[in-house]
Write a structure and sequence with these properties.
With 473 residues, the chain is α/β, with parallel strands linked by helices. It has helices spanning 4-9, 12-32, 36-59, 66-86, 92-120, 127-154, 168-187, 193-211, 219-241, 244-267, 272-276, 304-312, 323-328, 331-343, 362-369, 380-383, 405-408, 459-472, and strands at residues 316-321, 347-352, 377-379, 392-396, 427-432, 452-456. Strands 3-2-1-4-5-6 form a 6-stranded parallel β-sheet. The longest helix has 29 residues, at 92-120. It is globular.
């Protein structure tokens, strides 16, 4: 005879209530992530929701093999916690890509396991279960392998420039057709694990082939898109498993990822299909960006003392951060510089381009880590109209998102992409290690303007030198 408490805990209505609490925390946590000041709290709430969802799932009477489940949780904890704690902020985009891929891979494996289970117990399941299983297998496999390629590009294990195979689009179309044809064959009555494996393999190769020709400049959009695909595959797996929390959680991730992907694509004035078809970057872009116009021109270099004088006597300064700031881990030193300027009555703002860095919100994360006030962060549309009233703009490691060729050079691969209008400032100071190009692989005419000077060196060291000089002014 079951104890009353045990009966209550395993009651399906009680489990459904737990699921409602769980996905309510997901939604509230997502809402809290919209501001750096509440983002930490949002993460905690969402994590609590996930813990409740896991407990609710384990309470379902049909769930068994708790030893294997405990082993999986232990392995995931041993691997995940140290990885999350030790990862550097510069490597956060890689970690996001990798963890997103793991989610897609898990969904693909779950779909395979479910299909094998049904084959062992009488054949194909009903279509309302089979179709979500097939969908989850295709999308989950694409997301896993595509995310691995994105990770490899970001980690520089493979070249960040586009890697294009001859007949790329035809090959991609044939791979997609093979996966869909195998899925249709299974859905129309074929009972074959071999066909299911074919789906996984074709989708895996497709995931690789889709991301390989996309250049580094489009990586933030790709990461967001793959995240959305993982969410959709998780929702499909939830339908197949009749798991409410998985359905709702997957739909939230899929919907938010889709919205973010669209917003970022619009911010670059590019369509998502054009990005998937092969983004700009690397050697394929060298012909654009004003390279011919800048031949024979020289840049004007400066030193920390001159920059310090300009900043100390300015009334309004804007910092335009990019991936170079992340690489140098300069965000804390930048905040110290801003504090020193504000003591002198200088207004300091931060111009945030939607795709600056290597993942959505990369600059916001770095600056929030350095306790930069949220009100000082200005999105591109908000700050662009004010650059004409800015005395000095300090560009720290940002290249493509400040390139005026996007406005003027129709032959440039970034033509039409909205940029930060830093060139309209009274003076522009660019912090760079060298004259190397950005992700798009094109020259930047900004560097040759009369009102631009370049301070060469490591961004963190350069900012520290400027800060020292300002204290002497």
């Amino acid at each position: 005879m079951k104890l009353p408490v045990a009966s209550f805990l395993t009651d399906l209505d009680f489990i459904r209530v737990l699921y409602i609490v769980a996905f309510s925390l997901f939604i509230v946590g997502m809402q809290r992530l919209t501001k750096p000041s509440t983002a930490r709290q949002g993460n905690i709430l969402a994590a609590i929701g996930m813990a409740i969802a896991v407990v609710a799932t384990l309470l379902i009477p049909s769930v068994g093999d708790y030893g294997l489940i405990a082993l999986g949780i232990a392995i995931g904890t041993i691997v995940g916690v140290p990885a999350a704690r030790q990862v550097k902020m510069t490597a956060m985009p890689q970690m996001v890509a990798l963890f997103n891929g793991v989610g897609g891979g898990a969904v693909a494996l779950i779909s395979w396991a479910e299909y094998r289970h049904y084959l062992e117990h009488g054949g194909n399941p009903a279509l309302d279960t089979l179709i979500p299983i097939l969908f989850a297998a295709i999308i989950g496999s694409i997301s896993f392998w595509g995310s691995n390629i994105a990770f490899g590009k970001l980690q520089e294990l493979i070249p960040g420039k586009p890697i294009v195979v001859p007949g790329q689009q035809i090959v991609n179309g044939l791979l997609l057709l093979a996966a869909i044809a195998a899925a249709i064959a299974i859905a129309t009555g074929s009972e074959s694990e071999g066909l299911f494996v074919l789906i996984l393999v074709a989708a895996a190769v497709l995931g690789n082939m889709v991301v390989l020709p996309i250049g580094g400049a489009d990586m933030p959009v790709v990461i967001s898109l793959l995240n959305a695909l993982t969410g959709l595959s998780a929702a499909a797996a939830g339908i197949a498993l009749d798991n409410t929390a998985l359905i709702v959680g997957g739909i939230i991730v899929g919907a938010s990822g889709t919205i973010l992907t669209n917003l970022m694509a619009e911010a670059m004035n590019r369509s998502i299909p054009s990005i998937v078809a092969g983004g700009f970057g690397g050697a394929t872009a060298l012909a654009g960006g004003g390279g011919d116009d800048n031949e024979g021109r020289s840049v004007k270099s400066t030193d920390a003392a001159d920059v310090a004088i300009q900043l100390a006597y300015a009334s309004r300064v804007v910092v335009a951060p990019g991936y170079g700031m992340a690489v140098a881990q300069a965000q804390h030193t930048v905040r110290e510089l801003a504090d020193e300027l504000e003591k002198r009555g200088v207004e300091v703002l931060y111009a945030i381009h939607p795709v600056a860095g290597r993942m959505p919100g990369h600059m916001n994360v770095l600056l929030a880590e350095a306790d930069v006030p949220y009100d000082a962060l200005k999105e591109m549309d908000e700050i662009n109209g004010e650059f004409a009233q800015v005395d000095v703009t300090l560009v720290i490691g940002a290249n493509d998102v400040t390139n005026p060729a996007a406005r003027t050079d129709q032959g440039s691969p970034i033509y039409g992409m909205p940029i930060l209008d830093v060139d309209k400032s009274g003076s522009v100071i660019v912090l760079k290690r060298s004259m190397n190009t950005g992700f798009a692989g094109i020259d930047n005419p900004l560097f040759y303007n009369d009102n631009t000077a370049l301070l060469f060196g490591d961004a963190k060291a350069s900012v520290a030198d400027v800060l020292t000089e300002i204290k002497e002014v």
